[in-house]
Amino acid sequence: MRMAGTGPEPVQDNPGTRRSLWLAYALLLVAGLGAILVNLAQVLDSKQLYLREADKANANLAYSIAQHAQESIKEADIVLSALVPLLERGETSADTIDQLLLTFKQRSPQLAGVFVYDAEGRWLHYTNPPPAADANNSDRAYFQHHRYSVSRDTEVNSPLRSRSTGEWILPVSRRFNDKEGRFAGVVLASIRVDHFREFYKHFDIGAQGSILITMNDGTIIYRRPEDVGGTGESMAGSYMFQYDLKRSPVGVGGSISTLDGVDRVYAYRALDQFPLVTAVSMSRQEVLAEWGRKAAMVGSLVAVLVLALIGVGGGLVARMRKRMAVAQSIAQENRELFHLANRDSLTGIANRRQFDQALQVEFHRAATVGSPLALVMIDVDYFKAYNDRYGHQAGDACLKAVSDVLRRFKVRAGDTVARYGGEEFTVLLPHTDLAGARLVAERIRQAVYERGLTHSDNPVGVVTVSVGAHSLVPNPDDRPEQLLEWADTALYRAKSGGRNRVCLLEPTS
Ligand SMILES: Nc1nc2c(ncn2[C@@H]2O[C@H](COP(=O)(O)OP(=O)(O)OP(=O)(O)O)[C@@H](O)[C@H]2O)c(=O)[nH]1
């Protein structure tokens, strides 16, 4: 049997509301994470942009200093090309050649000097006086090369200290022959290493950047800055010489310098016509300094936005939760009120008020669909005597026991069991005809009897009930009270018929 009316549904069990809350949390999480990820992607992208820009700037500068070096060597070579035929023909006077050498030197300020050595290395002609009367340059590498190589090509050798001025020079030289084609000596135009220093100082490469020109074996001609890697030192062990140049004569790269330990991005270029390499680099830290500042700024802005999002969103969700909690407690109060208003406080089953409502509803439903509605009325026998003998509290316990019997008496969903008043109970049975009502009534009477509650003033020795029942198919004009009256009359007959029995009123019409 159903206890009539179960009251409002609890809010917390509403899966839709719980889903909305989870959705709100998920949206907050996705929005926050999304903002962070998009920002991260942009920040990383802009880092690559800064590095690419640095590569471009380095490559352009490496190209331009390579051009400069090439032009400087070519200019020296023009001097050599002019001198070699004159020396080989042997028709020009020594004075004229001396004069020519001076003119060449004056016209090309990058030249430290111009020199002619004979087949033994002795100084024949020179723009700068020899360090000693018997000066001899046959020990120089360029001299050795020309003496043993028949090639008449221009030779650029590793930088060395000038014997005439003591400064660092880059030797550019050629061999000349005698009329029989034998080695007759060497012409040398030496380029001042300072020439490169003066040119390179104009470029802005940051505080830790570097500009470099080397021989292709890694011997440094000039490096800016000059704190490490001086002229003549080798950087053959650097990443650029070990790997980059072996792969390609032109390129960009990044590595930690073997000279000063600074992490740099660089561009390099091997010269087309001479065995030289130029390279320009910038410190990675300096290249990325501005990016770092911007990234930190954008990052903090995003952090503030995400925090605001979490703050506002979290606040909204918290308000949602609060509202749900309020709704929940209201629902709880409603349930309690419903309970108070509709439940009998002693037995916990439906009270008279709820029974009356159920009767109205079921009566009209039965009238509408034309189905039978039965009412069973139960009254405890000799209950006054029970109270008198065992006391009022025992009487209450007896009523609870009877209601327990009725409560456990499952008949059908939709039935209503109620305390009608005092020691009187009712059971309303929709869709139940007279035969069904009789069956239920008899079972109830039997169950109470079998419960076996001692009652000395009852002739059978235990608590019993008298039951009156009636069933009808209501007409739309009938009143619910009629069913009550008939059931009550039947109950009266059961009482007057000797109690502990069931009585039904047969339909009068
Ligand atoms: N303990 C207790 N007694 C109640 C309660 N409600 C009604 N009563 C008592 O139930 C008794 C009903 O007595 P009567 O109407 O004379 O009927 P009866 O003694 O049962 O006799 P019959 O019904 O004719 O068998 C009265 O003494 C009421 O005081 C209740 O909630 N608790």
TrEMBL record:
Keyword Membrane: yes
Domain of life: Bacteria
Protein name per Swiss-Prot or TrEMBL: diguanylate cyclase
Domain GGDEF per the UniProt entry, residue ranges: 371-507
Cofactor: Mg(2+)
Catalysed conversion reaction: 2 GTP = 3',3'-c-di-GMP + 2 diphosphate
Source lineage: Bacteria, Pseudomonadati, Pseudomonadota, Gammaproteobacteria, Pseudomonadales
Keywords tagged on the record: Cell membrane, Membrane, Transmembrane, Transmembrane helix
EC class (word): transferase
Species in which this protein is naturally found: Metapseudomonas lalkuanensis
Record's bilayer topology term: Multi-pass membrane protein
UniProt xrefs under Pfam families: dCache_1, GGDEF
Chain segments annotated as transmembrane: 21-41, 295-318
One term under GO cellular component: plasma membrane
Primary location recorded for the protein, binned into one broad class: membrane
Signal peptide, first to last residue: none
EC number: 2.7.7.65
GO BP terms in the entry: cell adhesion involved in single-species biofilm formation; negative regulation of bacterial-type flagellum-dependent cell motility
Location in or out of the cell: Cell inner membrane; Cell membrane
InterPro entries: dCache_1, Diguanylate_Cyclase, GGDEF_dom, Nucleotide_cyclase, Rev_trsase/Diguanyl_cyclase, Sensor-like_sf
